[in-house]
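Batch 3, record 17
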Amino acid sequence: MLPTLPLLNDRFLGAAAFRARVGTGYSLLPLRLIALDALRYVLTNFAGEHVVLPKAIARQFIRHELDSNSAVYDELKSKHFLLDDDSTVALDLLAVKYRTKQSLLANFTSLFMFVVTLRCDHSCPYCQVSRQSVDRHAYDMTIAAADRAIDFMFHSPSPAIKVEFQGGESLLNFELIRHIVTRVNDRNVLEGRDIRFVIATNLMCLSDEILSFCKEHDVFISTSLDGPRTLHNQNRPRPGGDSYEVAVAGIGRSREALGADRVAALMTTTEASLSQPVEIVDEYVRQGFNSIFLRPLSPYGFAVKTGLVTGYSIEQWLDFYRRSLEYIVELNYRGIPFREDYSSLILRKILTPYPTGYVDLQSPAGIGISGIVFNYDGDIYASDEARMLAESGDRRFRLGNLHTDSFEEVMSSDNLIDILSETMTECVPMCVDCGF
Amino acid sequence: MIKLHGKMPKRDDGEPFVVRVVRGTPGSPLAGDREAYILGPDEVAPPGYRAYLSAGGAHLQSPGQTRVIWPIPEELSYLSDGDIVRINPKTGELWVVYRRSSPFNAMLLTERCNSNCLMCSQPPKAGDDSHLVKAYLDAIPLMAPDSAELGITGGEPTLLGGSLLQVLRACKEHLPDTALHMLSNGRLFNYLSLCREFEAIDHPDFMIGIPLYSDIPHRHDFVVQAAGAFDQTVRGIMNLARCGQRIEIRMVLHRETVDRLPQFARFVARNLPFVEHIALMGLEMMGYVKMNLEALWIDPVDYRQQLRQAVDVLRQHDLNVSIYNHQLCVLDRVLWPVARKSISDWKNEYIDKCRECAIQDSCGGFFASSSLRRSAHIAAFQSHEVCSPIAGVKKQVSNV
Ligand code: SF4
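Prediction for the assembled complex:
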């Protein structure tokens, strides 16, 4: 701090007069801490602020022994870890920040996933759902179920609603997608919600008809791209072995028809991917994407059930993640703007007061209250993973069925409330004290 | 430096009045009792105006004139069509309330204030100054409705309570397309009810610029010389945001504010991210600054690092930040795109060194008052040092 020179005109009070209010003691505001390494603690609070301190200083602080003249003191005060007699506005600011962090809770469920069919032409060993062969129409969602799902959806108070069509291969049941989009839009004339449609598809059955429908109704396309040709085709086998060619051609056609910002791709990391971080990122750059979401294998669905996929350890995954990220940072330094979406989410959580809306990383978890899944058979699940788990026999996260249960029954079911309260880090023992 | 006040010989004992200046063809007066006609050479006063002004003074003696004619003081000879003046017959004061051609018109509504900032350029004065509001209420209907922006300043305008609201309503009624920018210390917005009044007026283009000088309460309180001001101002900002008011944060850079600049930026980004604009402003050598010069002055070159860090933090948070009142040669080049030509035309100057400078057009230059103290690092740029015109430096209306 610069020394205060005693040169103020004497009609003004010196800085010390205002500083005197700070007083001799301070209270701790709610905080958690955890060792970062042998020497440092990270202190965090529920509004998402953090401070990294040498362990000795952190101990002084907690024991109310911190010198109020120190820079650390001002930092802790500025970030609302302590309160002294100088000011009480910290409490108001903390409240606003907490409210901002949790603001999406107030909107309630905004993501609705419609599993329009379980049929699929691919036979990906890592498939997260238990796909069915193309001719088994028993695995299609019925119009009656879809209509009930739409009613259910509009029960949510959320001003913004995202409708995501999933499979199987969702476009194998395009007729139902067309029905849902049309019906939702008709109804929305009165509802006035901000609605976005996304079709998750492998692009195999993309047609001009589908594209012009998407164009007309502002529907987004999301597809899978695992990396370069060999890797992608190895990960995603289908008759003809041309999944990559189909995806790349489909991405091009969709962009042309809908605009580049309407087309997204997702990747899944298999064991074969682990050695190719640079190649995978390069493929995304080559295909004109400006971001990638690095996703590990999901331990659900076919992958686990069949043992078809060789898993990998968390260390292997982290190593892959780190190398990919290093390469992405390097790309940016070279002047190629490119983002890793998972890191962006984490950084947004750490560095800004805003929520991410990422259901996996919030307290309480976003199950049911942020996103919800309507399965082809009318079953309602708390999340995509929940239905995968159910396919393999564990129906713990099944919340009800569209044909028998109302919105109110589902949302207030013990099943949902129990799992929600278990995910509230604010009150679960251990979690409540965890610095992360 | 353009003068806004002048003295004329005392004429009669009439009450002060506000008139719009008509210069050029007389025609029939649009609002005769609220207009003053400037006579051309040897012109005989046409009928129907509230007052007559003469630029040279030649008319005063001419035998044909029967009306009272006010001689315009030399320094106000720029007065032109559409300008608004207040004439006080008892004292002979001529005050230019509004200049039609200036993008920097501001209404100083009161000189009273509940703070007493170390660097106030317009030190508060106690006492009744209600004539100010009255003059502006008369002037607002006469202002050109196509004026881009109009400022409200003080003193602390919110101390006026109801009359401030009256001014805002008048602006909304007569100048609905003119952006209104008010400077306030924000402390009275601690009362939600005042914010609600602003919300109710619902001016179509209104922004409030509020100073905040530190992330540490007692440091801010020291700068504004008022205990508890930080809490009031921060709560005020939150209340205004609740009422949907648009807010700008203004930080004046001097020896007592620059040391925590990066932390301050982080505090704003983290706690007040809803503000629309953050202005980081250089000192104007006026008012109290003269008294506290040694305590406050710091060469801008000596806080380059903090300024750079602060702007980086704010930009990383996607906040809209500008630097006001800084010469380009004292700024890190990376900051040039956020530097604005912010000094009001009537007090804006360049120094001799600037004459050879290749980027003078993009540079905001100095306050006229800077003769008191300038950076020791003012240095003209050769054209080869600056490869292309500086696109980022925009002209900005700002009432400083
Ligand atoms: S020399 Fe003058 S015009 Fe050039 S950058 Fe410096 S202050 Fe501006």
